[in-house]
Specification:
six-stranded mixed β-sheet, 6 strands, binds inosinic acid, alpha/beta, Maf protein, single chain
Length: about 220
């Protein structure tokens, strides 16, 4: 059985990834190791940021003894793209509210959601179409693997979930923008629909689907 190290401190993402991959993989999360790496997400795309996280962790796990038997590092970079806002908040989804005030780091979900609704209030609700996008970067972990090989062998898997933003948050499930996002074909938000529906149709589920097809193909 292959071991995947999930390079994220976001417990919600870990939960969704775990529940998708089920018993097919041994999954180790960042929380379970005594090591904190917080590479700066300086990329201008989800793919670049996912690779920064995956490669940084893969280098450490290949040269250190913190976690034994890891075959792959998996990193998730994801966010919300709203059409009428030109694709914002996009790669800035986690720190959207703080970008406005100049505070460093990620902002609380409630503040990000409040900013989103404020920005959208200039436009009619029927134009609030949006999508969640998730890019997973998968890097191999092998003792002593040269950096350039690691970078060359890093692969990406993408998933998108189309939908729209609603004017009032609703529901208590999930995280981030889930209370505001209604996936296509539904009338309720991700936060109302709950984990079983979200884990079937979300951007992350779709990216994980292509990841598991890719990994299984290799055996
Ligand atoms: P990252 O951790 O740098 O990839 O930032 C991801 C941010 O995008 C989160 O903090 C959320 O604001 C948003 N996001 C990503 N995936 C989801 C999701 O499944 N539901 C709600 N918000 C999400």
């Amino acid at each position: 059985m292959q071991t995947l190290f999930i390079a994220t401190g976001n417990a919600h993402k870990v939960g969704e990834i775990r529940s998708f991959l089920g018993s097919g993989f041994r999954v180790v999360s960042q929380k379970e190791v005594d090591l904190r790496l917080d590479p700066e997400e300086t990329g201008s795309s989800f793919a670049e940021n996912a690779a920064i996280k995956a490669i940084t962790w893969a280098r450490h796990l290949a040269f250190g003894a913190q976690v034994q038997g890891v075959d792959w590092v998996l990193a998730d970079d994801s966010g919300l793209e709203v059409d009428i806002l030109g694709g914002a908040p996009g790669v800035h989804s986690a720190r959207y509210a703080h970008l406005e005030t100049g505070q460093p780091g990620n902002a609380p979900d409630a503040l990000n959601n409040a900013r989103l609704l404020r920005e959208l209030s200039r436009f009619p609700v029927n134009r609030w179409t949006a999508r969640f996008r998730c890019v997973l970067a998968l890097s191999p972990v092998r003792p002593g693997i040269p950096g350039e090989v690691l970078e060359r062998e890093t692969r990406w898997f993408e998933g998108v979930c189309e939908g729209r933003i609603q004017p009032q948050p609703a529901g208590v499930g999930g995280f981030g923008y889930d209370p505001l996002f209604i996936p296509e074909g539904e009338t309720r938000s991700f936060a109302e629909l709950g984990a079983s529906v979200k884990n079937r149709i979300s951007h992350r589920a779709r990216a994980l689907e292509s990841l598991s097809i890719g990994l299984n193909r290799e055996g």
